[in-house]
Amino acid sequence: MSWQEYCLLFAAMGLVTYLPRCLPLIYLAHRRLPKPLVDWLSLIPAAILSALIAPSLFTNSSTRSLELGKPELWVAIPTLYFAWKTKNLAGTVVLGMALYWLAGFV
Amino acid sequence: MAPLPPSTLFRHGLAAAWPICLGYFPIGLALGVLAQQTGLPWWAMAMMSILVFAGSAQFICVAMLASGASFPAIVFTTLMVNLRHALMGSALAVHLQGVDRRFLVLFAYGITDESFALNMARFSKGGWSRWSALTANQLPNLTWIGATTAGVLVGQFTPQGAFGIDYALNAMFLCLLVYQLKNWLSVITALIAALVATLWYLYIPGDSYIVAAAVIAATCGYLLKRRQEGHQ
């Protein structure tokens, strides 16, 4: 990709990242979002993270078919347990990488 | 209370933010190495970290670039992933009432999951200056820009797939997901999202599965909550 293409992509990404951080902070300081919207939005992070990760654990991305028992799935179990117990982001990333690396030798 | 000197406010921010910086460093490095293996030059990584500054969205962007996704798909996914910050901004506004707009414009740039969690806790406890909060926003930002750029430069010396780097993204999402599982409702929502995303991914081409599954699962979760509240 060229310099211009990267510029365009990152500027657009930057804009859609910045506006949600900026607009409510500045304009909604004195108002409240409607309760149903707040309730719905509060479930979005869990839903989107789970949706992001599930296909990479349960499917084969090259054939786009169901594949249970990938190393990605086995490694996810202790990684998830570690994350649950410690709530440590950096530690979880390092552990997940190490286990996946070791799984490559098995 | 007499206003504290700027150096003291900066030190308060530094003292609070250093664990975030420490956490960002390996993740930023991992993102840089991954980006380098996708073919991103170091200046593009630096530009992305400066313009976007959103860890998970940047990981997703690199993954989507690697799989040849279209620009609109990447930008739309970025928007959906970062929409949660709209809620965080609203919550922070409670503690920044009547503050100069120019300050808020600068402050908003550094709102992340981590700095939000930190600043909300400190503001609630009281005695937390907005200048210390700004420091706690921007120091991790500088660390992030440095670490991601360094990762690309180090990545040139890292063999493909070394040290399980390909799993960094999955591990980070797993941990961020755990942060979100606060009650039974969020657990059920996450399970529905996983099921819908996997089925959608298998049967519908393209990368609409992320947004579609998230919207469907959050709506199911919301309706379940409504039903439960109706019974009480």
How would you characterize the overall build of this protein?
The complex is a heterodimer of chains A (106) and B (232). Chain A is mainly α. In chain A, strand 1 and strand 2 form a beta hairpin. In chain A, helix 3 runs antiparallel to helix 4. The model of chain A has no long low-confidence stretch (mean pLDDT 86). In chain B, 78% of the residues lie in helices and 0% in strands. Chain B is mainly α and 232 residues long. Chain B has eleven helices and no strands. At the A-B interface, helix 1, helix 2, strand 2, helix 3 and helix 4 of A face helix 1, helix 2, helix 3, helix 4 and helix 5 of B.
Average of per-residue pLDDT values of chain A: 86
Can you write the helix and strand succession of chain A as a string?
A: HHEEHH
Major pleated sheet of chain B: none
| Strand coverage percent of chain A | under 5%
Unreliable spans of chain A are none
Largest sheet of chain A: 2 strands, antiparallel
What is the β-strand count of chain A? 2
Domain module tally of chain A:
3
**Which strand order spans the largest sheet of chain A, edge to edge or round the barrel?**
1-2
Question: Which chains make the largest contact?
Answer: A-B, 75 and 93 residues
**Which residues of chain B sit in consecutive blocks of at least 5 with pLDDT less than 50?**
none
Q: So how many helices of chain B?
A: 11
Radius of gyration of chain B: 20 Å
Distance between the termini of chain B: 48 Å
* Shape estimate of chain B: globular
Helical residues, percent of chain A: over 70%
Layout of SSEs?
The complex is a heterodimer of chains A (106) and B (232).
Chain A: H1 3-27, H2 35-58, E1 59-60, E2 65-66, H3 71-86, H4 89-103
Antiparallel strand pairs in A: 1-2
Chain B: H1 6-38, H2 42-51, H3 55-66, H4 71-82, H5 84-93, H6 101-109, H7 113-125, H8 130-155, H9 168-180, H10 184-203, H11 209-231
Helix pairs in contact in B: 1-3, 1-8, 2-8, 3-4, 5-7, 7-8, 10-11
